[in-house]
Amino acid sequence: MDHFYRMKRIWKPAIITVLVCITIPFIFFILVHLGAFGHLQTKEELRNFKNAEASRVLSSEGLLIGKFYSENRTNVSYEQLPSHLVNALIATEDVRFFEHEGVDSRSLIRVLLKTILLNRSESGGGSTITQQLAKNMFGRKGNGRLSILVSKYREAILARRLEKTFTKEEILTLYLNTVSFGENIYGIDAAASRYFNKITETLRIEESAMLIGMLKAITRYNPVLNLEKAKTRRDVVLRQMEKYKFLVPDIADSLILLPMALNYRKSESEGTADYFLFQVKR
Predict the structure, then answer these.
(1) Which of 45, 68, 156, 262 could form an SS bridge with 41, CB 3.0 to 4.6 Å?
(2) CA distance to 92, 135, 170, 233, 278, per residue, from 208 (Å)
(3) pLDDT beyond 90 at 72
(4) Could you tell me the CA-to-CA distances from 127 to 50, 57, 115, 227 in Å, in that order?
(5) What are phi and psi of 64, to 5 degrees?
(6) How far apart are the C-alpha atoms of 11 and 87, rounded to whole Å?
């Protein structure tokens, strides 16, 4: 009998802890789903989402003179995305992208348990491309100490809705048109123009790898600010592409040996037509 009571004293706290770990996330999920921490976009609202684009000023010959924008972005279609760009994104950010339905449950549970049990608000990680898209589309709102937990749940719910609203290809396109590359640059096309002075379709493999590598930390891996760090990160992306069979080893090795070759273009409105742009803006 004494042995029974000793075991009871040992197991009771453990059972309570397990129940708490199960119950609290479930309660939060219900509250978030009901909109207790803010509005959750419906499928119709998601379908009608539009990225802000730059206004382009063209010459009579159709040449780009300059742009006006609050967010420098030019949207591209899925057909304009090079396959190696898509492969670099998947290999680096979400290798199971074409298998899940918006949420990688194992990664999400790991992050939530770290947040609850270890109180590690920086635990991060575990987000699929679709969850990242949800964050990029609608941002995050402060909810005090519960901010990370609430945000993760919101993004998980929105990710499932995005997957039911769009095809995988449409999600990839939305993501690459929405993501920030720093310097008020949004979307892959504006990033290709800024760092390589070219359009998305003409990006080379190593250039795509560099741009995708920036997404981990856009300031730390900005090639203008930290060229060596940007190259190191680019090479990590190339190795990820090799690991998941998007590149054969010989090609990956040869690309890693290439130096960083930027064609940085700070402003698309610099030049002899600035006076004309000023008049158009007025």
Answers:
(1) 45
(2) 12, 22, 19, 12, 34
(3) no
(4) 23, 38, 14, 27
(5) -75, 120
(6) 48
